[in-house]
Amino acid sequence: MKRAFSMIELIFIIAILGILAAVALPRLSASRDDALVASAKLDLKTALSDVITYNLSQGRYSRNIKDMTNVDFKNSSFSVKGVKCLKFSFLGMKVMQVDIDRSGLCDRVLSGSVVEPYLKMDAGSLTHTPTVSYIPLDESTISSLNDL
User: Fold this and answer.
1) What do the Gene Ontology cellular component annotations say (predicted)?
2) What is the pTM of this model?
């Protein structure tokens, strides 16, 4: 009598391994996304702190956000997994306009982040929309940012 696996036993083993892989891969992907979201939230907090520090040391803002922080902003945009979540532009030196995209992982990054309350601040006559927000760059905003 031979001591080997039959073809049916091998097929069952392959099927069981396939089922285990089908269960494990989505969980692995979700864990990777969770790590990416946590890293992006930390990058946003660092960038916000850098901008505050730049303003306090220089007494002004730079027109280009990349000049004020070492966080990777390509074309004044904060991206997560290839999606531009936030795009910053200055309206004069008193208001920062933020274009918001909540698709992909961006919604998870922005909800509960340190930046979210500032995306809802009163900016005078400028009206917030779900895709555009305005952050006033005045003394009260700077003092509240310092409390981070």
Assistant:
1) type II protein secretion system complex
2) 0.69
